[in-house]
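Input for the complex:
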Amino acid sequence: MNETASVVVVGAGPAGICAAKALVAAGLRPVVIDEGLRAGGQIYRRPLVDDGRSATDLYGSEAAKATRLHREFDALLPSIDYRPQTLVWNIADNQLHLTANGVHQRIGFQNLILTTGATDRVLPFPGWTLPGVYTLGAAQTALKAQGCTIGKRVVFLGSGPLLYLVAWQYVKAGGDVAAVLDTAPFAAKLNLLSAIRFDPRLVLTGMSYAARLVRRGVKLHYNVRPTGVDGSQHVEGLNFKSGAKTHSIACDAVAYGFALRAETQLADLAGCPFRFDDRDRTWLPATDDAGRTSCKGIYLAGDGSGIAGADAAEISGELAALAVIQDSGMAADPRRMSVLAGARRRKAKLRDILEKAFPFPQNWFDQIPGATTLCRCEEITVSSVIDTVHGNDLRELNRLKALSRAGMGRCQGRMCSAAMAEILASTQKLKLPEIGRLRAQAPIKPLPLSLHEAGS
Amino acid sequence: MATHHSRPQFQRHFRRDDAHIPFTIDGTAYSGRRGDTVLVAIMSVTGQLRRSEFTSEPRAGFCLIGACQDCFVTLACGTRVRACTTPLEAHMAFTTRESGNE
Ligand code: FES
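Predicted:
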């Protein structure tokens, strides 16, 4: 016998927590499913055990928010059905397929709020699979959740607000930051000035990280493209170009990334229609202002519906919950909804400006040698993907996946789909929306080998 | 090969004095700390987690949040665990001599 819940929230980051809170306030008892061990999501992730650090040590300028969300969620526990360490790996026929502790289970739902979050957006470069190269998010998680730095002497590389933030967090924790290498030109940062009116605190705190790093003697370079990593068993150094100049830095770790990419697999499996988003350079599930999809009973919130950050996730989480309440024929405060929708639009404008300040490196592949690994699961090179495109005159991403095997591995394209799309589009001189998108496949993450049906 | 005896990749800054949790890699005894994930425990004493399936390159995880699936390690009993999302338990015995891919 499968149970059916009136509302299920998938994810317990800022969006999921705020959704659950609004649902409980309306008298509902949502099931909240969380892949993590403790609620908070990636951004407000809590260490497995208390390690003596304060909220300010862990979350810096966002400590008050983190503490509030953790406290609010803990207070909700008696009023919700919380299921930590549980993976939703498929959605079919209004049922979620879950596993927890190797046990397989299904839950039916009338309403579903997906707050599936995001992962780092990465691009390949020579040496990116070597031990010591991690994503920016990984570098931050190692420190925040485990109190470790990813190496003794770390280079930070890429584009996005996280670049300077994590570099500063490493310096503060006593790590040795060898350099911060921004792939964007310095002039791009001037865009931040026009973002101040949308969120002065965020912008000024963000800008202060670069200033503080410089004061601590950390070298910043702009317009960077990495040319290779030294070392055969682990990172021993990083070579890069900054404009016309070539440099090399001794280091034993590299943290890099280019902002985030939305985790949209569950929305895809649920059958939600997608739209192409120019700013995020990817396909996203289409929603209205409140997070409604065109699938009845399915709502989206947080970065999984488009990258907008943690504050926006709180707003969109509450909005989606109010939409559920309204669509269920209960009273939802329309004024609150329009205030939230307005706030969400302002966050979206802020995000547009941040994207200009921390732009995606569009010409990345101009300097990437063909022998570079593109798909780290199946170990497929850039040149073999390009050869497959040419050899079959491919113009569609899923065909490229099928014929090249790139994107077919265990990560299901999470680490290579952005690169595959950029390569296919540029090789065939097509626009990104013209080459389609990789379809999600269940299970969206590898399942433990021995699965038992609950109750059997 | 015994490449896992190479230098530690991760550096601990907190929980250094927390309770030690014993584990082994290919029979060699190490200790992690209470509150470690498997990934942090192993990468704090060695330089890699595993070798890649096709080219046998060393790998050490990548995303640390359960997305890239780069960090699977094998227990002596044959079970594979995702190192970055699995809490370390006392007496876990890891083997780097994989029998097969799955
Ligand atoms: S390091 Fe990416 S899944 Fe574990």
